[in-house]
Amino acid sequence: MKKIEAVLFDIDGTLLDTREFIYQAYRHTLQSHGLSVRSFDEIAVIMSTGKSLEESYRYFTPTYDMGKLCETHRTFQAEHLYLSVPFPNTHKTLKELKDAGVKTAAITTRSKRTSIKTLATSGIADYFDVILSGEDVERPKPHPEALLKALKQLEIQPEKAVMVGDTEADILAGKSAGTKTIGVSYGFHGFKIAEVNPDFIIDDIADLLSIVFSLT
Question: Which of 10, 12, 17, 207 is an active site residue?
Answer without folding.
Answer: 10
